[in-house]
Amino acid sequence: MALDDLATLVAPREIIICEGNPAGQVAGKNAEHDAKIYSTIFAEEMPDVTFISAGSASQVSGDFFGLAAALPKVASGMIVTRLIDRDDHAPGDVTSYEEQGIKVLCRRHIEAYLYDDEILTALCESVGKSEIAPELM
Questions:
Q1: Residues 6 or more apart in contact with residue 87 via CB below 8 angstroms
Q2: What is the pTM of this model?
């Protein structure tokens, strides 16, 4: 009982399992790339959410590592969400994923959001280089 109480106090409120090479899988292969991006984007808005990269879309949707099944047992009340890229999934497949509680991006992959003109302009402005935004785009 005491460990369960402690886990509830220190565990994040929500874990979002996303695509990407898990940490330690292949050195130098963008380990946890998507998780790092999501964590950076949502750090202020969702500080009690942890993003974990867990492989390909099929590995995430199929809970290959058993994370979606195991994590709520560690801390009661923890929410676990699986998130995959849209990629080339047919509309029927997307509907099927969503019916299983798997979130699917509206765009092909996370990079499609990052390379949006609005984001690139904001990046240039944030580092004092507004003048290079048109060239970057």
A1: 57, 108, 109
A2: 0.81
* DSSP string for residues in the chain: -HHHHHHHHHS-SEEEEESBPPTTSSTTS-TTHHHHHHHHHHTTT-TTEEEEE-BSHHHHHTTTT-HHHHHHHHSTT-EEEEEE--TT--HHHHHHHHHTTEEE-SSSSHHHHHTSHHHHHHHHHHTT-GGGHHHH-
C-alpha to C-alpha distance for 61 and 1, rounded to whole angstroms? 32
Residue-wise pLDDT for 88-109, tens only, equals: 999 999 999 999 999 999 999 9
Backbone angles phi, psi at 53, to 5 degrees: -80, 135
- Neighbouring CB atoms inside 10 A of 102's CB total 20
Cα–Cα nearest to 92, from 81, 80, 104, 107 = 104
Location of structure tokens 């997307």? 94
Each residue's pLDDT tens digit, 6-51: 556 678 889 999 999 887 655 566 789 899 999 999 999 999 999 9
